[in-house]
Automatic annotation (TrEMBL):
CDD domains: serpin42Da-like. Residues 35-404 form the Serpin domain. Belongs to the serpin family. This is Serpin domain-containing protein. One of its GO terms (cellular component) is extracellular space. Residues 1-18 form the signal peptide. It comes from the Eukaryota. Gene3D superfamilies: Alpha-1-antitrypsin, domain 1, Antithrombin, subunit I, domain 2. PANTHER family: GH10112P-RELATED, SERINE PROTEASE INHIBITOR, SERPIN. Coiled coil: none annotated. The keyword Signal applies. GO terms for molecular function: serine-type endopeptidase inhibitor activity. Pfam families: Serpin.
Amino acid sequence: MTPLRILFIFVLLHLTMASKEELQTVIQGNGLFTKQLYSVLAKKEGNVFFSPISVHAVLSMAYQGAGGSTYEALTNSLNVPDHSIAAKGYNSVLGQLNNVSGIELSMANKIYIKEGYELQSEFQEVTAKQFLSAVEPVNFNESEKAAKTINTWVEEKTKEKIKDLVKAEDLNEDTRLVLLNAIYFKGNWASKFDAAETRPQKFYINNNDSIEVQMMKKKSKYNYKEDRTLDAQVLELPYSNPDISMIIILPNKRDGIVKLEEKLANVDLTKITENMYKPEVIVSLPKFKIETEIDLNGPLQELGLGEIFNQKSADFSKMLKTPEQLVVSKVVQKAFIEVNEEGAEAAAATNILLLARTMKQHWPEEEFIVDHPCIILIQAHTNLSTKIRARASNVLFAGKLTFSV
């Protein structure tokens, strides 16, 4: 019998209450998954932009319906030791991200199922209760109509930034399920750039070649550090809600992006903002917009998830009330980000704790000029312990800004 297909779609746009340990496990798992997926996607030339949490979340939903070697592959790739930990952790993540004030941030899941089919009770319960996912029946045989239904939901959740994600040719009579995650973010800077200060300036694609960009400029107090291990500067630009911030990792050398990427393989991205201080920083940052569409079948196979695409051994037997074998046919993600003087808008999907100081400190003024390729993260910060003032950060979006294609 030819295995029937599940179509996983990821879109970009940050209960049974999980314990702090479960939440931290999911955050750390997403952080490691971010590094691993970035290392694969960064092999291509040009800009990179994606939402690791969107991919991680929808795979965590699929994790709930997996068995056998497929379950083990997802355990290893998601970096979460058990499907119930993933479910409870994401329930807390969704609760936090969807209740952030002062900015627009939302993350949603959805399952489309072929008319006449039913989800197994346990799978339906956990995806509804923990992942807050609604289920909607559609007729995949009418592929044009089904694609329009799905794309309408995606457009609504991403404020029309992501369009035509699903193609009619992606759907057919063998399609049984479409699993979706959409995340959307729009936030103003805590300290906006003055548009009158924006000027044309060179951005160096490499040591010799440059292009002209519109460079914004701002002087303010920011969390900052010079990381000698990475041979890079790290800057945190907070949004109007300090629970969310953009992290820019800028190599000290114009052609240092490749070596920086290699070094980041050994860094916990969820803790990249540790050991920063807050001097006056003169920031020069280009205005930019990136739109990407990524076929994730190959990258996920590189990360050890070839099992979910394997027609002989894929095991999603805990999803449907049917003995039919299911296998993933396609994984795709579209992403969008725009950064300007007001702030940033991203679609595809901080609690910043400042230590009290007993005495006023003065630091020399720093300069942070983004005039060559760098790495950008948008993170949501979570307080893990008020007693020890520990926090971890969920990576909502990640990318590489190069201005080359």
